[in-house]
Amino acid sequence: MARYIVRRVLWGVGLLVIVSAVIFLIFYILPSADPAVLRAGRNSGPTQIAAIRHSLGLDRPIYEQFFDYMKGIFLHFDFGFSYQYNVPVRQLIVTRLPATTYLVVGAVIVWLLMGIPTGIISAIKQRSLLDRTTMATSLALISAPVFWLGLVSLYLFAQDVGQFQIFPGQGSYETATTFVGRGEALILPWIVLAAATAAIYARYMRSSMIEVMSEDYIRTARAKGLTERRVIMRHGVRSAITPIVTLLGLDIGTLLAGNAILTESVFNIPGVGRLLYTSITRSDLTTIQGITLFGAFFIVIFNLIVDIAYAYLDPRVRYQ
Amino acid sequence: MTDSPQAPATTATPARKLLEVRDLMVSFETEDGTLTAVDGASFSVDRGETLGIVGESGSGKSVANMTVLGLTRARYTTISGQIFFDGTDLLSLQPDELRKVRGNDIAMIFQDPLTSLHPYYKIGWQMVEAVQAHQDINHDAARKRSIDLLKLVGIPEAERRFDQYPHEFSGGMRQRVMIAMALVNDPKLLIADEPTTALDVTLQAQILKLLQRLQKEFEMGVIMITHDLGVIAEVADEVNVMYAGRVVEKGSLDQIFYDPQHPYAWGLLGSLTRIDRDRVARLSQIKGQPPSLISPPKGCPFRPRCPHSFDKCLELPELKQRGGETGHLDRCWLDNEKKKSLRIVEGGEIGLEAPAPAGARS
């Protein structure tokens, strides 16, 4: 097991280097804007721009730039300097991580609590009215764009503009000062961010559960005279939920990586996603690179966690 | 051990045997129509006795026996008839009452021991669970009982293997674990659904021997479901031949093997490999496919495949004593004397073959 983990970690590091090289190349081949020009401002001549370019090291060969970048990351955990904010990228990201983490963790809890039981019940009551209703609802939720769902939820429930003023609205995260207060501000974002994923998990859990419940070992469990409840929970769910773990790891990874960008934008939450959004609009290359690498890092980490968790969940994997 | 629950007395004649299934009918609503998997099957077995049920896939042998345990009860299933077990009609029991019989008084083992054990739980855990589902005893006692059973079915180092997962066992050992788990609550009846089909031949013999030994030790009734007449010959006292959801012939082992009355039984016997004879070029087979259970043929269900069928076969023959001795029943309209000559094919063996052509119809 230890050897397996070490091998996976080394793989992950290699993957991160490749990812950063690809990002580097993309911006070199397809620059969205010249960072030196942006930084120089409106009233500046060619000499000024050239001077800035030289000071940023942008006039050197790309492999040198890449090598320096990698050196900074591996030796100093330094992701470079944001051209726009004038602060280290690392600091930019780290100060925004708590908001994103709070948002994502809450949303994960919401979607698991909604999706998993719904999937189980739908599978057990397959083809019933309840099953059909929940599956139709889930399809609607999957189809609804997050920004639309976000705006609708604000229109309906926000304390400032809502028709039913129940939950704190847009921008309330930044004004809240306590953990609980921020949690309240995140109620709507949690639900909005979780809705589509909850629906996907419900459908996934349902089909997984239906498949498992037709397995021979479920018949054995019933033949043993176990209660139906025990057959479902201990024998059925135990198997059906294992593939969900894979899904969960990936979803948490991508959300922490800035995939909550739409939710964060709609609700004005100062997280990594919104930072990514503003960085893209301002061609802040180092920040975009930093966030992408951070994202890749999270995805690699959560993949690793998933694989290790899987070995514990499925004893057959352990011996291979 | 908990007692089997007593159901209200039924009006029909009381059952004398351990298990008596009468006129069992099981049908499923499918998208293509109603599928009648078991169509009026009756069979019985007593303690210490082995009933062999033989038939092709889809003959209803598994469904009938799963219905005994209530495993086919579902929203789209219709079940009728009577299943007396120890004087109780199991069909009249509530699901939770029937649950207390399952795995306790009646146990079942299945064909594929690889897929029949839960891959994520240690075999010990699964056995302890089976004990504790019916007996109010602590984990240590349940563990001890389980290990005793593992030893009894011939698993070496039972204490150590108790803590292993199913995938760490070989196929034969897994089936032994299944058997141990089935017997852990000292059942009166064991239903074995093709227990040796997934195993290779040398293991088959071992498992059958084991089952026979355990049957004596536990004084159980055993129902052996199989498509393999070789298995039947090895273990059965009584034999039921099932076809398309019906019992088409029933009798003692010798009656079925030496004096088969139904052409389907001739076909089954004719397709056996014999080690006491020279190898024939090609094994004979029963032509055609089993009939659709959604729209079965009119009359005798074997008629479309039977080379000896005639006009009368458009009517369904009832199961009764015809050409056989006492207790030997069948469903075939053919003349009793004619049967004796028709079933002898080339080489003097019993088999199913087309009769001579040109107007020589029976």
- Largest interface in this structure: A-B, 24 and 31 residues
Identify the overall geometry of chain B.
globular
Q: Catalogue the unreliable spans of chain B.
A: 1-11, 356-362
Number of strands of chain B: 14
Rounded radius of gyration of chain A (Å):
24 Å
**What is the share of helical residues of chain B?**
25-40%
| SSE arrangement of chain B, N to C | EEEHEEHEHHHHHEHEHEEHHEEHEE
State the helicity of chain A in percent bands. Answer: over 70%
- Overall pLDDT level of chain B: 89
Instruction: Report the C-alpha radius of gyration of chain B, rounded.
Output: 22 Å
**Total count of helical runs of at least 4 residues of chain B:** 12
* Percent of sequence in beta strands of chain A: under 5%
Word description of this protein:
The complex is a heterodimer of chains A (about 325) and B (about 350). Helix content of chain A is about 80%, strand content about 0%. Chain A is mostly helical and about 325 residues long. The longest helix of chain A has about 35 residues, at about 90-125. The longest helix of chain B has 18 residues, at about 200-220. Chain B has an 8-stranded mixed beta sheet with strand order 6-7-8-3-9-10-12-11, with helices on both faces. In chain B, strands 2-1-4-5 form a 4-stranded antiparallel beta sheet. In chain B, strands 13-14 form a two-stranded antiparallel ribbon. With about 350 residues, chain B is α/β, with parallel strands linked by helices. Chain B starts with 18 loop residues before the first strand and ends in a 12-residue tail after the last strand. Helices cover about 30% and strands about 20% of the residues of chain B. In chain B, helix 4 (about 125-135) packs across helix 5 (about 140-150) and helix 5 crosses helix 7 (about 170-185). The interface of A and B includes residues 217, 234, 239, 313 and 316 of A.
